[in-house]
Amino acid sequence: METYFGSSGRSSRFYDSIVRVKQLSSGVGASAADTRGPGLFQVGGTALPGKNIADLEAAIYAEM
Q: How far apart are the first and last CA of the chain?
């Protein structure tokens, strides 16, 4: 099971900045495994056709 941190909805900071404003991605989000102890935190996005993946990655890092 994963827990989402308010990062994948249309009102999230990630979505607003990367999808609406910068128009780099069709969707972005972040989640963490719902387990005890160390877990995996994941952040991801899907680049729009013709958009540079490096630009999307830089925008994600800027929001973190």
A: 23
